[in-house]
Amino acid sequence: MNKPGQDNSQLSRGPRKASDFKIRSNRLTEFAIDRDYERCIKCEVCIRQCAFDVHYYDEDEDTIKHRAEDCVSCQRCTVMCPTNAIVVRQNPAQYRAHGSWSPEHVKDINRQAETGGVVLTGSGNDKQQPVYWDKLLINASQVTNPSIDPLREPMELRTYLGRKPDALEIADGKLVSAVPPQLKVETPILFSAISYGAISYNVQKALAQAARELGTFFNTGEGGLHPDFYEYKDNCIVQVASGRFGVHPDYLNAARMVEIKIGQGAKPGIGGHLAGEKVSESVSVTRMIPLGTDAISPAPQHDIYSIEDLRMLVYALKEATNYRVPVSVKIAAVHNAAAIASGMARAGADVLVVDGFRGGTGAAPKVIRDNVGLPIEFAIAAVDKRLRDEGIRNDVSLIAGGGIRNAGDIVKAIALGADAVYIGTAALVAVGCTLCQKCNWGIATQDPYLAKRVNPDVARKRLVNLVQGWSHEIKEMLGGMGINSIESLRGSRSQLRGIGLTSQELEILGVKPAGM
Questions:
Q1: Is 50 exposed, middle or buried (CB count within 10 Å of its CB: 0-12, 13-18, 19+)?
Q2: Which residue segment(s) compose the domain that 401 sits in?
Q3: pLDDT, position 271
Q4: Number of CB atoms found within 10 A of residue 311's CB
Q5: Within a 10 A sphere around the Cβ of 22, how many other Cβ atoms?
Q6: DSSP code of 325?
Q7: How would you class 282 by CB atoms within 10 Å of its CB: exposed for 0-12, middle for 13-18, buried for 19 or more?
Q8: Beta strands 236-240 and 257-261: pairing type?
Q9: pLDDT tops 50 at residue 497
Q10: Quick check: helix, strand or coil at residue 28?
Q11: What single-letter DSSP state applies at residue 134?
Q12: pLDDT tier at 23, thresholds 50, 70, 90
């Protein structure tokens, strides 16, 4: 009996070479689609909304059908269906269970056997590693140190990012001391580096507008600054990465802070890659690269091979901006992050950014994303302690990023030693991202048809709502601790207690176990 795709002449040949076979997929369909035909009105909304041609109309049978093998579970068809006739779910069919070989391992092996390439993915590390935010509990005032009601009493979330003098000289009520340039942030929440090209024009516009409305900052990432967005320069952080995409004098002088990108939490030790299909005419002009070409950032910055080299670039950027703005340096959270941070502070950086292994990305090798880096909780605690031990904590501000999910995480990050946090994935989720890693919502795409699905005014409002909501919650938690200023919380690990942590983990985090 013939197997699919074979005929008798093939079977009669005897032994054959591998080239005689057409490589086929042994992978199971990842998602299952259930369609309630009693509810379905054949409106074809699902067909128009799906960018992957999963749904189609069968004229012969006069019905809507689907190809589940092409589904990425973005859930847009489910949300947009006017009669709620569609359910997309994980496919319950699985190969035989094996303790050492999970379905994910089997799927990845099959993908590489079919393609011979590197398995790429997006988002941040999604493995079942401990989330240490969830193992830290926040203190609350009771009798001897009364709590503060943020609705009736002043509560300060404003903070300043940059190098601080050890003392201030004031004469006749006026500040005499020279203070290095500072980044004034009305809430300790900044939008992380997300480049134009990785996200659509409308999404970056929404981030810029939201930052201006909130009194915080958005970060261009390594993709340059679109000419239309120079009007938001008062709330803009620009990035200088290894590829130097879009870097020129006007770009640097449009910034309120310049950030040198050394590493990224989702892919420590390697460079960036924006596929040529996302390099539209507008992206190519902004990044200053040819239309349709891959934008590949080298793994290292080729002018930085030591702390001394880093110092030269830091001061070159300070010179280029006439010492008007702080210069930050961003690294991934790695095993020796504390020692690296010390060197960065001594190299003249005004702000240190540490990005944990749950930080998001548009594309990274899956093996890197899932196996390299550290949780941001450990990295921030270690960096803050090292800087304090060396007496240089006031020389730099510290921004934590990579896996910040809610206001509770922010309060814990600041208590561990951060001055402020970056949010990236959370911001995109607020706009509408479903973490499907193949964008059908117009967020992480340059497809002009799909990009129109994001209304920048609506996206701006959702971002503003998110940050305002989190800011209110931060005030509530501060008040509950009897603290009226976010800066008073910085590094106050006595406000934290660990639960379900080993003695080593507690020691690294610098917190006591619950009950003590």
A1: buried
A2: 134-513
A3: 87
A4: 17
A5: 6
A6: S
A7: middle
A8: parallel
A9: yes
A10: coil
A11: G
A12: low
> What H or E segment, with its residue span, contains residue 317?
helix 307-320
Instruction: Determine the Cα–Cα distance for residues 408 and 406; give it in Å rounded to an integer.
Output: 5
CA distances from 266 to 195, 277, 334, 375 (A): 15, 22, 11, 11
Distance CA 72, CA 357 (A): 24
Cβ burial of 257 (10 Å; 0-12, 13-18, 19+) is buried
Q: What is the pTM of this model?
A: 0.91
Q: What is the pLDDT of residue 356?
A: 95
**312 vs 318: CA distance, rounded Å:** 10
Would you state the pLDDT for residue 173? 85
Last residue of a domain, one of 91, 117, 143: 117
Q: Is 481 exposed, middle or buried (0-12, 13-18, 19+ CB in 10 A)?
A: buried
Q: Are residues 172 and 111 in the same domain?
A: no
Does 7 map to a domain? no
Structure-block tokens of residue 53? 């041609």
Strand, coil or helix: 157:
coil
For residue 305, what is the DSSP state?
S
| The predicted structure's pLDDT at residue 26 | 78
Residue 4: pLDDT above 60?
Answer: no
Residue-wise pLDDT for 152-168, tens only, equals 999 999 999 999 988 88
Q: Are 323 and 373 in contact (CB under 8 A)?
A: no
What tokens were used for 386? 């090292």
pLDDT in tens, 222-265: 999 999 999 999 999 999 999 999 999 999 999 999 999 999 99
Within 8 A by CB and 6+ apart from 451, the residues are: 200, 201, 202, 442, 445
Q: Are 294 and 273 in contact (CB under 8 A)?
A: yes
What are residue 121's DSSP bridge partners? 364
Domain shared by 446 and 307, yes or no: yes
What CATH number corresponds to the domain at position 342?
3.20.20.70
pLDDT at 275 > cutoff 80: yes
**412-444: buried (b, 16+ CB within 10 Å) or exposed (e) per residue?**
bbbbbbbbbbbbbbbbbbbbbbbebbebbbbbb
Q: Please indicate, yes or no, whether residues 164 and 109 belong to a single structural domain of this protein.
A: no
The answer to whether residue 253 sits within a structural domain is: yes
